[in-house]
Structure formats: structure tokens, C-alpha cells
Amino acid sequence: MSIGRTKLNAHIIRTKHYKRKMHLVVDMKIENINDIDMKKWKKYKEEDIRTDSLWIIGKRDNSGVHSPDYWGNFIPQIPRQAMLRFTKKNEWVLDPFLGSGTTLIECRQLGRNGVGVEIVPGIAENAKKLIEKEKNRYGVRTEVVVGDSVSEKIWKEVDNINKKFQLIIMHPPYWDIIKFSRKKNDLSNAKTLEDFLSRFSMVVKNTYPLLENERFLVLVIGDKYEKSEWIPLGFYCMENVLKTGYKLKSVVVKNMTENRGKRSRHSLWRYRALKGNFYVFRHEYVIFFEKTDDR
Ligand SMILES: C[S@@+](CC[C@H](N)C(=O)[O-])C[C@H]1O[C@@H](n2cnc3c(N)ncnc32)[C@H](O)[C@@H]1O
Fold this sequence. Notes:
single chain, 295 residues, alpha/beta, Rossmann fold, 8-stranded mixed sheet, 10 strands, 19% strand, globular, binds S-adenosylmethionine
């Protein structure tokens, strides 16, 4: 090979390397949507700021007023991770299925403003009391709205509190696995899978305009097993969110610790699984979507 050709090859290799580097730089968004200091990124440990798609979380965080007492609440580490990666201090978080208020408690701990909607007045009232007991060292606003997230009406009320949100966290009922109330419009009272999905889609559509562009929706959901069939609620809900126009960014699989009921019936479930040729649920999904108006 002539010297000229060697030089040319070296130039091509350098150009390819440069392009690859540039690609990496372009892939890392320029605008900050969090307070992570990228100059010190190596200092963050995986359990502090997660980047893997498998979350094995040991103990439930019980800091501040967080409590495991509400049957069906998620562990505080889920909204915490979402807020740390996808919001900055003083930004706004929306939770259309507030339950016991985990998201808003976490908002107070991390210095984010938050609005939560809950259909059952008693649950909302308890959540409000609990959230107010959490220290508010950053002086943020945390508002609980009683109402049905499926109906358009409630969103005017939310709009009066705040117009644009930087993160939406949704933790809907896993259809009818836990009945949260007798209310007709409670998603856990949907008569059929189609009905459940159509109500869930309405919530996604109603909240879409409230999310700022290039920001994230996080969906926390598990599947269901009924009449000897696995019903992949997670995948169905994910498909519905995508139909609204969101871009899929990540599907995280998180370990699910046994709830009180299942723990005491562990061997019964194992027996059923062996007999029925299925696997006992040990995971749920945390699915991340980005709103991109250019789609
Ligand atoms: C899985 S729980 C959420 C738990 C919450 N992440 C927590 O940590 O406490 C779902 C909640 O959605 C509420 N819900 C069901 N249908 C609703 C609707 N149409 N509008 C608003 N809230 C609803 C239920 O009452 C229940 O509290």
C-alpha cells in the first residue's frame, strides 16, 4: 500500500471516529430537563439515579410521612427516580391517579410542585392530610383535586392551578385487581377490558395538552391473570399511550414484592402456577414516554 493510501485510510478512520463522537453528543440532549450535574455524572450511583431497564428495589422507602398502609400504592422510589431524571427543582408534576399521595409527598421531599387528582373523596382527604404533614422545606405547592380524571371537566380545575406540567406520573388501577371504590367511573370498576382501556386512554388524551413539549409521561402498571389467561395490561396500555402520539423512550421492568395477601398464600400460588402452567407475577412495568410535537 502506498503512503498516500495509508494517509487516506487514517483520515477516513479519524472522520468516522469524529462522526461517532458527534453522534453521541447530539444524542445527549443539550437542554437540561433535570438537575443532574453531567460534569460529575460518574459520582451518581445506579441506585441514586437509575439508568438500567431492570429495577430490583429492595426496601420500600419509608422516609418522612411515606407509609405502606394504602393497599395499591407504589413505592416512593418510582416517582423519585422519575422526578430526578425528568424534572428540575420547582417544576410541576401531575398525577391523575393520586391514591394515598405518594407522588406529592415525594414532590415535597424533592422540591417539585405537584397536582394530584383522585376520584374517591375519602382517599383524597386522607392523602391531603398526609401530604401536609410532610416537611415543605422548599416551599413548593402540592394540591389535591377531587374528581374523575376521565371527564374533561376536572382538567379546567387543574388548569386554574397550573397550566403546563413538566412531568406526568400515572399509576392507574390494574383494572379490577384491587377495587378502590364503588364509584362507577373508578377505572377499577370497568366492566370489560375494552372499557378499562378506553377510560385509561381518555385520561392520557385529557392530560396530553397539559404536558410541556419534550417532557415525559411515566406509566406504572402491572398485568393481570384471569380464567387461566395472562392479560398483558401493561402492553395494552402502552399501545394506547403510543396511539395518542407519544414516543416510547424506555420500558423498565421492576420487581414487585409480594403484597400482604399473596405473602401469606405463597405456597398456594406456587402450587397453582405449577398446576396451571403459568408464572407468578414478580414484576410490573415503569414505562417512559416523551411528548414530541413534531410527530
Ligand atoms: C393504583 S392506585 C394509585 C396509588 C398511588 N400511586 C399511591 O402511591 O398511593 C389508583 C388510584 O386511582 C384512583 N382512581 C380510579 N379511577 C379514577 C378516575 N377515573 N379518576 C381519578 N382517580 C381514579 C383510585 O381510587 C386509586 O386511588
